[in-house]
């Protein structure tokens, strides 16, 4: 049995944008319809950081070492994955979907997987580690179909 059956949801996400799609037809000729979109404004770290990276003394000598600055951009991406996991939990709990396929870049997919509630995890029928958020829906349909057929 194919994983992309009628009414299967497909989440296409990266660290800043997400499309919630639902398959309106069958696995042979998928027709994905956009249910919801999520996007966050996440400027580069250099625009979010308050000051330059810190330094600290290495003891009694005059030597000072640099401290890595916080990667605010990456933190926002990780938080976005947690936000998506919360949205999926609410939708799953409300019975809005029974099956879902996750499509995201490997980093976001891993972060999302770590954040998902068991109720959502039980509904995941496929994962595709690709960045497709900037593709048109017609292309997403073809790529998801091809990836699932190859699996």
Descriptive overview:
The protein has 151 residues and is α/β, with parallel strands linked by helices. It has 5 helices and 7 strands, in the order E-E-E-H-E-E-H-E-H-H-E-H. The chain has a single domain (9-41, 70-150), classed as Nucleotidyltransferase, domain 5, CATH 3.30.420. The protein has helices at 45-48, 72-93, 106-115, 118-121, 137-150; strands spanning 9-13, 17-23, 32-39, 55-57, 64-66, 100-104, 124-128. Strands 3-2-1-6-7 form a 5-stranded mixed sheet.
Question: TL;DR of this structure?
Answer:
This protein is of the alpha/beta class and 151 residues long. The chain has helices spanning 45-48, 72-93, 106-115, 118-121, 137-150; strands spanning 9-13, 17-23, 32-39, 55-57, 64-66, 100-104, 124-128.
Poorly predicted regions are none
- The helicity comes to 25-40%
Count of helix runs: 5
> How can the largest sheet be summarized?
5 strands, mixed
Structural class: alpha/beta
End-to-end C-alpha gap: 12 Å
At the fourth CATH level, what is the homologous superfamily?
Answer: eRF1 domain 2
The Cα radius of gyration reads 20 Å
Query: Which class in CATH terms?
Result: Alpha Beta
| CATH fold field value | Nucleotidyltransferase, domain 5
Percentage of β-strand residues: 15-25%
If classified by CATH, what would the architecture be? 2-Layer Sandwich
Query: Which geometry do the CA atoms define?
Result: elongated
Domain count? 1
What strand order characterises the main sheet?
3-2-1-6-7
């Amino acid at each position: 049995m194919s994983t992309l059956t009628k009414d299967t949801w497909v989440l296409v996400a990266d660290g800043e944008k997400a499309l919630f799609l639902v398959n309106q037809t069958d696995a042979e000729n998928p027709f994905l319809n956009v249910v919801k979109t999520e996007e966050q404004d996440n400027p580069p770290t250099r625009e979010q950081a308050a000051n330059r990276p810190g330094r600290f003394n290495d003891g009694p000598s005059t030597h000072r070492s640099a401290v890595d600055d916080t990667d605010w951009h990456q933190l926002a991406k990780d938080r976005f994955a947690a936000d998506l996991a919360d949205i999926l939990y609410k939708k799953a709990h409300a019975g809005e979907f029974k099956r879902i396929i996750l499509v995201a870049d490997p980093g976001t997919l891993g972060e999302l997987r770590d954040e998902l509630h068991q109720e959502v995890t039980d509904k995941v029928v496929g994962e595709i580690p690709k960045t497709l958020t900037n593709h048109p829906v017609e292309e997403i349909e073809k790529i998801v179909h091809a990836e699932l057929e190859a699996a």
